[in-house]
Amino acid sequence: MEFNLARVIAAVAATHPERVALVHHGVEVSFPDFVDRYQRLGNAFADAGLGCHTERSALKGHESGQDHIALYLNNGPEYLESMLGGWAARAATFNVNHRYLANELLYLLGDSAARAVIVSSMYATTLAEVLPDLPDIELIVQVEDESDNKLLPGAVPYEEFVRDQEPLSLDDCSPDDLYVLYTGGTTGMPKGVLWRNADFFVGALGGSNRREKREYESYEEISAVASRGTLRWMTSAPFMHGAAQWVALQALSMGHTLVLPDVVDRYDASTVLQACERERVEFLQIVGDAFARPLIDALGPQSPAPSSLRSIISGGAVLNAELKNELKERFGGVTIRDSIGSSETGVQGSNISGKDEPSSTGDFEPAPGTTVVNNQMDAVLEAGSKEIGWIAMSGRVPLGYLGDEEKTQLTFPVIDDVRLSIPGDRAHRLPDGRIQVLGRDSATINSGGEKIFAEEVENVVKTHPDIYDTVVCGRSSARWGSEVVAIVQLIAGAQLREADIMQHCEKHIARYKWPKAVIQVDKIQRSPAGKPDYRWAKTIAEELRVD
């Protein structure tokens, strides 16, 4: 049997009406009330003419038969209500980076063929700039916030949009209905990844009977498994990032309570810790080093860690081994659950280390379906192969990229009659079966004929005691073709000594991988989800060149 997430969470709510689904600013929302809200919102979307117009069986992998709703929102309850309300109406919602400038927003809303936008008031002025060029947008629903921005012309207040609606039946919701996730676009233009709901539930959320190592057979079984207990989870990353959405939906589909951060428009480590303590959070989600370091800084040298915290879950970006050890020490021996995956694959592997276990960076125990294929993408590599290949995923993977048939065929090839997802990360298959992930090929630097993986160099430079954060990129070079440049942010009070960084690199990586230049900046620019902005780094590297 296959499943739709709107129906999964409704089934859990029906079986466990006493449970709390969401907590925000201390306000608790029960599972039945949460489901009622998104069913009413679904009815409002349906009344506005949004839904499914072509069934999946009549479409190619890169095509959508549903109306698309843009979620231009902060991390409030409205984000999850809108996502699930869209599915209730059989429309497809998608994420919008709320840091986009007008030209970037115009591209995204045009590429997605959006018919509706749910927008937080603080972003209304940017949306207003592009609306004249987007005649296909027929509905704007505006969420009130602390900004002074007025209601856009023709927009409907969110609460008014939901009010007086009857709950929409979920009987017509299909496992084929789309989950759409736009990639970050840190190395190229964002692309909309199309997942079937049923494939997303299993491939990205781990929706299966783990004890019996099989997929669920009914909605009743899912609810029964949820009966085993409830925990409190918290997402610290913005919902416009897939990792935060996946953790949130996984928690809700398992009947757990999801705690939302107090500060909703950005990552604020100090208030995240306060909410963890106040709401007795047990599982905290972060995104790599860029979230871990501020979390440690916010805790301070003498402050006690949140007493209930049992595990810190990281995904979507590299989490360095030294920071893992520091997290375990400062947070009372929590378990660190580091995962690898992408918008195009779901979760591909994990690296779990407890209090007394050694930490490592970049090596993962593969999830079922995860493998490494050769450079030509025509064969699977054996464990222990010395060849650098591509990490790949089989089984429940996405259908393709919205509107891009060519890229869909390149990213989702068929090898030995098996359809794979190969989004572009380079990897080794280690002798013991684990997979060493080297980094995205688009961020690889070809210097003097040698391929150098930016993430590998970043992981080394970050461990220097004077470095707070770094992004490594390539820039043009008459001698090398491309040369390695490290853009660094120092810890407070430190002074840049390039020779010290080179000596540090000497202990860990081959000489040809060392940075040819080190550039200091006040702050490393990253996406709101903590991912490195390689386009920004290359601009800095070229502008601050000293020949």
Structure description:
- The structure is a single chain.
- The chain is 28% helix and 26% strand.
- It has 3 domains: 30-220, Rossmann fold; 232-439, Rossmann fold (3-Layer(aba) Sandwich), CATH 3.40.50.12780; 448-543, ANL, C-terminal domain (GMP Synthetase, Chain A, domain 3), CATH 3.30.300.
- The termini are far apart.
- The longest helix has 17 residues, at 31-47.
- It has 16 helices and 30 strands.
- Strand 28 (467-477) and strand 29 form a beta hairpin.
- Helix 1 crosses helix 8 (219-226), helix 4 (102-111) crosses helix 5 (124-130) and helix 10 packs across helix 11 (288-299).
- It is an alpha/beta fold.
- It has a 15-stranded mixed sheet that branches. A 5-stranded parallel sheet has the order 4-3-5-6-7, with helices on both faces. Strands 8-9-21 form a 3-stranded antiparallel sheet.
